[in-house]
Amino acid sequence: MEFATPVSRQCSRLGLAREASFEEVQDARNYLYETYKRHERSREAIELAYDSILQERMKVRHKYGFQPPRRGRKSDVQGDPLPTGIIGNIKERLEPSVPLPTIVNDGSIFIMMGLWAAWQTSTADPSLPVGAALCFSVWRLFDKRKKRAPESDLGRSPIWGAVGVTLFGLFLGSLVSWALVRVLPLPRIIRPDQAGLFIINIVMGLVCIFFK
To answer: How far apart are CA 115 and CA 109, in angstroms?
Structure first.
């Protein structure tokens, strides 16, 4: 069963489908406003529906960027449908494309951090390399998010998302590390805790590079 979204209801009020173009929305608003120009409540409802549709279109455009018009209209800015389901939500949080230099440069840093942490655990506390990897991940994610939303206020600052994704990478890396160390046949010179720390850094690096 499908439930109508608020925007779908607002489109219905103007007699339009959700995928209507901007010109169609504007024409419908002008026609209905002229038709009900002597009825104040109807005019208010028309303006409310029109404003709600425009706000939703702008949110989608800011989030996904400008999408080529599907029906030959330059001002059709609805974009692709919002993702649904677990797979759709995961894809929506991934970078659409990552340049090879970014993969090589950032990946090399996380590999070095992983090797440093693995070596450090055999002689001392590995907190320093792990902390350095966390800080680098937060900084890289913050930089990407800041470029997408430079005018965000404190409550919606990119730093919170950067910290959240980094902690998710740490959690995911810990799970993957725990699972792989239990099943992989490690050489005698490599201890499970060394392999585990290296895997955690690699997973954190993958999350940092490929997540928005």
So the answer is: 10
Same domain, 114 and 172: yes
Q: What is the pLDDT of residues 84-125, one digit of tens each?
A: 567 777 777 787 778 888 899 999 999 999 999 989 887 788
Query: Which residue is listed with tokens 């997973």?
Result: 203
DSSP for 111-177 reads HHHHHHHHHHHTTS-THHHHHHHHHHHHHHHHHHHHHH-TT--GGG-HHHHHHHHHHHHHHHHHHHH
User: Same domain for 17 and 68?
Assistant: yes
User: Interhelix angle for 127-148 vs 100-121, to 10°?
Assistant: 160
Q: Report d(CA 57, CA 76) in Å as an integer.
A: 9
Residues β-bridged to residue 94: 211
Whether pTM > 0.70 for this model: the answer is: no
* Cα-based angle 18, 22, 28 (whole degrees, multiple of 5): 80
